[in-house]
Amino acid sequence: MLKELLAGRGVPAIWDGTGDWESRRREILDTLLQEEYGYLPPAPEDLHFEEAKEDYYSINFCAGHACLRRVVCSFTLNGKPFSFPFKAVIPRNKEKIPFFIHINFTPDVPDKYLPAEELVDNGFAVFSLGYKDVTSDDGDMTNGLAGVLFDGRPREASDPGKIALWAYGAQRVMDYAMTLPELDPTHSAVVGHSRLGKTALLCGATDERFACAISNDSGCCGAALFREKEGETIEKITNVFPFWFCPGFAKYRGLDNELPFDQHFLLAAMAPRRVFVGSASEDSWADPANEFLSCVAAGEVWEKLCLPGFPCEDSIPEPTTAIYGGRVGYQIREGRHFFSRQDWHRYMEFLRSF
Ligand code: GCU
Predict the structure, then answer these.
(1) Which of 8, 148, 247, 307 is the most exposed place for a label (fewest CB within 10 A)?
(2) According to the model, what pLDDT value does residue 236 have?
(3) Residues enclosing ligand 1, CB less than 6 A?
């Protein structure tokens, strides 16, 4: 029934299972970068990290069960220097620590969207990046990473929007995480809420070091299929937030039911790695049903790779449901657009499930 529903909506097939998945993966990623998000900047030069000295607050964080580290990341891009801060919360005296790289609205740790102590108590490390420390959330392309990259020139059709630049920032945090031997990169996830859930999916898709990408309530241009979507559409999102995307994406306004790709391409770009999508029952602007259907459509790629894809029933789930056991996972909780403790527990559970 769900497969017929998707076919009836004209959701494009991702892969026929012939040839090499990695080359097809690169093709679909290329489509998404060229048409929607823009290409991420090239690799940084002279990348280095500076850790602030521990103080009373950082030493006693989480009753001393974890250290809170304030780190500054610096590099050269386009011949110009750039730096941004982030925070790391790392359980003490542990090995093989699973971890999240959280792209957040604020740099604060803890924060309403980041119950850091609860993650530590469950054995997880978390890195948190305040997205505006990378570049502002508006059409100003002269500040932060955007300023360094564009240097005052106008953006071209496939130049990155802000989502791609925030994703690039989170990849630099991963550069730092990879230097810490106590962490377990095979249980690493990039995670974000809403616009930063869109960012987390793009970040994971374009960087194979992330074992998993997790989006919370990411909706339009995140996990949700455009075709027959409730709430936000391409026209609405590009009217208010044109700067999140590459300039060329605006040509798809009004074409949500016809465009040559859809958001299941973004989920499938994680294959053969893992992806988890979270929805909230009252978040009709994001459209939980279309977030779920995108998982169904993407799951086929893993099946074709002879891996467990998306093990769901043949119907749209009621809240509260969580689907584990495959390389694509999904959960819907009751309530509104928010990154809740309950959501975090589901994501921790997913990382524990493999
Ligand atoms: C707006 C936008 C959404 C986005 C959300 C958020 O509602 O339309 O696409 O996900 O902001 O980031 O909170």
Answers:
(1) 8
(2) 98
(3) 194-195, 219-220, 232, 237, 285
